[in-house]
Amino acid sequence: MSLKVSSRITYGNASAVNVKQNGDIPEVLFTATPGNSAEALWFCFELFETEPDTVTSTKIKITLKHLRNLSGCTNALTIKPVYQPKDQQWFRMKSGHPHVADDGQTSVSWTIPYPSPSTIIAFCYPYGRPELTTTLQKAKGYWHQDAIGISPQGRNITRLSNSYGKVSGHQAGIYIIARQNAGGTPGSWVLDGILQQLSRNKKHNFLIWIIPLANIDGIIKGDYGQTADSMSYAWGEPPLKHETLLLQNDIKEWGKRCKPYLVLDLHAADGSESDGIYSLLPDPEQFAEANREASTWANVFKQALGPDYAAAEFKRTTTTTNTTVNDFARANMNCSSITLNIPYANCNKTIMQQKQYREAGKRLADAISNRHSGDAKNDN
User: Fold this and answer.
1) Separation CA 213–CA 60 (nearest Å)
2) I want to staple 274 with a disulfide (CB 3.0 to 4.6 A). Which of 62, 125, 206, 346 is the partner?
């Protein structure tokens, strides 16, 4: 038996790796590295056997160390990573077994089938350019792809659009951003469902611009991306991040070519969040009008998502000011803007697989279309 662990893969992240032979079941211990972030959470690595002929075990124990240091991981039982044996589909793990050491350090372990010949393990289903390409191919040319600039490490920041519109255009405009925080893969999977539904319905009455992989450098490197100066909290003018500057300029251009209707920001929830998808609204005492606008959208989205996906406490308040895309959109576009946070594993009793994330996205896409149709009728 010669187990090896590699984080030198796309989206790779794993540190402090230790492989042990504990009786009949080998154990791989690891933790998530913070990379360039203040916090750590995301992990993704490949586990493989270099001498398969000597394997006698059918199972292996995976142990995540330093749990209390990972972002939002307050309940070990709600953390359910995913794994993919070579040439197979992804599987979601069940609740693990937490352990508190004498010094208070907490870890949590799961048992999965032995990795023969190899298995990829991740905090949640990875999502990057290959997954996006597959969805775009199914759309059969509905989405235009354009680079709005390059990342600090020279990668294209891609925008999708159903049309470029025209300056002083009168279409209602939708602008969507996902993955400002690199490790927020649930936001990407929900966006995947939105993309599929919009391309199926071909809603030409909208001008839709979308940034699917905003923090592309962090995504590929396997960063988590949640920090005080991360993209999501860097929206002042001038912004703290180059990628944010690109998004600000693109949103302004979009705003010239439509009647801005909604800016939607898709994020992941904290590591242990399991109540369901929820919205972040501006403080009603400081920003009463902005809160009312976002609250209306929150009501629409909660009803559309239903109890399968929406948290009971769907409207939650953020106290940040002038630092997020929502603040920027309201100040510069004079339109509604809202953030949705999506859990990594559970929406209450619903176990989130790729199918469930996409279904939530489909419902959100339909909710936007249905509300706009209702608003248009009322205007007439």
Assistant:
1) 33
2) 346
